[in-house]
Amino acid sequence: MTGFSEQPAQFAGKKAKLVRVEMEEDHEALNLAADWADISQGLRKDLGQQVHGQWIKPIQPGNYCKETGTLDLYLPTEFSASWVQDRFSDRLSLAWKIARPDVRHVRILVHPGRKQLPELRLGSGGSPRRPANDSLAQSDPMAAALEGEAFATLTQGAANIDASQTFTSFVTGTSNVLAANAAQRMAALETPQFSPLYLKAATGQGKTHLLHAIGHAYLASHPSARIFYCSAERFMVEFVQALRHNQMMEFKSRLRGFDLLLVDDIQFIIGKASAQEELLYTIDALLAEGKRLVFAADRAPQALDGVEPRLLSRLSMGLVADIQSADIELRRSILESRLTRFASVQVPADVIEFLARTINRNVRELVGGLNKLIAYAQLTGQAVSLQLAEEQLTDILSANRRRITIDEIQRTVCQFYRIDKTEMSSKRRARAVVRPRQVAMYLAKVLTPRSYPEIGRKFGGRDHSTVIHAVRLIEELRTRDADMDGDVRSLLRQLES
Predict the structure, then answer these.
(1) Whether residues 56 and 97 fall in one domain
(2) CA nearest 234: which of 116, 151, 306?
(3) How is the chain split among helix, strand and coil, in percent rounded to 5?
(4) CA distance 451 to 437
């Protein structure tokens, strides 16, 4: 009887131990997830939204061995794991060691728990084709299926065009008018004078919007046209898939059958010699047949590292259209255009001015800030106000806010008007000196949080009433003197860039 009474107790003890182990594992997983959230946020700021979203965001913390200090990071495919390993492994390792000193080694692996996807099918119908390399499919079924699905998309000729990103919804200004006009020419009925078109812009300035707009407009004017939009990374995935499955002839014939090819983020094709060669041959074949090609990247062709000279010459042979950072006038126009979608929401002019002046890194953050502010106001029933904007957009505003000093303003104004910086504090009253000094006072009030007395002290100890007079005078001159308004706009662009 004693033996029987001990067995339930032993069983209960083992069960309790298992529960404790599971609780410890869950606790460790939560700690890893919290640390990863902080690390990921820091990497997003360092690498930019686009690179982070494409390569870093999919990472999932996995197993962690306390004895060896080894942490596994999982990615969904071998391609992405290899890419992250080559380019970001050192940065990830350093970030984890800072966050958790007990982490000594970081391994980047393919997620072990992937599920088998449907077998590859080419075209819109027909029987499934077994990959020529059976060992690849068995060892990495998810990667093969993912890549097969991607290649099937390409061979079917899907455009992947976002119908909301059109020329109508693209707001133009001095910083992007060349690129916008070139994009419209590329989509027009008549044959463009230049091809390929290469759009160069930093993250969030509208190059992807223009790619989709070209595809949308071209399809409207050429209903039977075959259009394909993809990223350079997607192009490489599909190229590798075709290579592995002995389908290069289908890949080439389908790819070169498109009337319009749109390739985004071409900078990510660097270092892949075989993919570069295939892209080179595709460009030559499409151009020889009068087809249209558009590429987009975050840097000029000459700044692409690891691109072979022949491909570099093809990318540069058409028109390279640069999209500069949106100036404040364009940022205002973009916000006002966006407001037409929210007719029922009242957004005061001072809020628009605040957002346009403060969120100046890229257009995507600007629009995102407005959307977040309006959504919060609608969900909470509050009115949109300057105070609400400052409270709810703290992260965006702090990331964009660059501290401009009065000394910096004085230097910039003196260089612009070609006078010595000592004139900012001198007692001279010659018009050639007084007007630049008044412009500098005006800019100091507009661009810094300094009070009138503080500004006056920076200008040779002048009285606050002198600063008030200067600010009001320049405001008035801007309304009736085009030259003065042009000078101030130019100075604002220099100081805010």
Answers:
(1) yes
(2) 151
(3) 60, 10, 30
(4) 17
Residue 273 belongs to what domain range?
141-323
Locate the DSSP E strands across 132-231: 197-201, 227-231
Q: Which residues contact 79 (CB under 8 A, 6 or more apart)?
A: 143, 147, 236, 237, 240
Dihedral angle of Cα 251, 217, 124, 145, to the nearest 10 degrees:
60
Same domain, residue pair 444 and 302: no
Q: Give, in order, the Cα–Cα distances in Å from 94 to each of 81, 372, 437.
A: 18, 33, 49
CB-count burial class (<10 Å; 0-12, 13-18, 19+) for 381: exposed
CA distance 120 to 158: 16
Q: Which residues pair with 320 in a beta bridge?
A: 198
Find out whether 262 and 195 touch, Cβ atoms under 8 Å: no
**Residue 208 annotated as part of some ligand binding site:** yes
CATH number at residue 50: 3.30.300.180
Does residue 319 share a domain with residue 233?
A: yes
* Phi, psi for 472 (deg, rounded to 5): -65, -35
Give the separation between CA 456 and CA 463, rounded to whole angstroms: 6
Return the pLDDT at 222. 87
Q: Do residues 52 and 58 touch, judged by C-beta distance below 8 A?
A: no
User: Same domain for 301 and 176?
Assistant: yes
pLDDT in the model for residue 127: 34
- Strand 60-65 to 70-75 pairing: antiparallel
User: What confidence tens digit (pLDDT) does each residue in 49-63 have?
Assistant: 777 888 888 898 888
Q: Among positive and negative, which fits the CA dihedral 284, 285, 290, 291?
A: negative
Residue 207 marked in a binding site: yes
3-state secondary structure 308-333: CHHHHHHHHCCEEEEECCCCHHHHHH
Q: What percent of the chain has pLDDT over 70?
A: 82
pLDDT digits (tens, 9 = 90+) for 98-150: 778 888 889 999 877 643 333 323 233 333 333 333 333 333 333 333 333 34
Q: What is the pLDDT of residues 25-74, one digit of tens each?
A: 556 676 777 788 878 877 877 777 777 888 888 898 888 888 888 999 99
Question: Quick check: 314 and 283 in contact, CB under 8 A?
Answer: yes
Average pLDDT in the chain: 80
Beta carbons within 8 Å of 214's beta carbon, 6+ residues apart: 183, 186, 187, 260, 262, 294
Distance CA 424, CA 410 (A): 7
Q: Is 278 in contact with 193 (CB distance < 8 Å)? A: no
206 is in an annotated binding site: yes
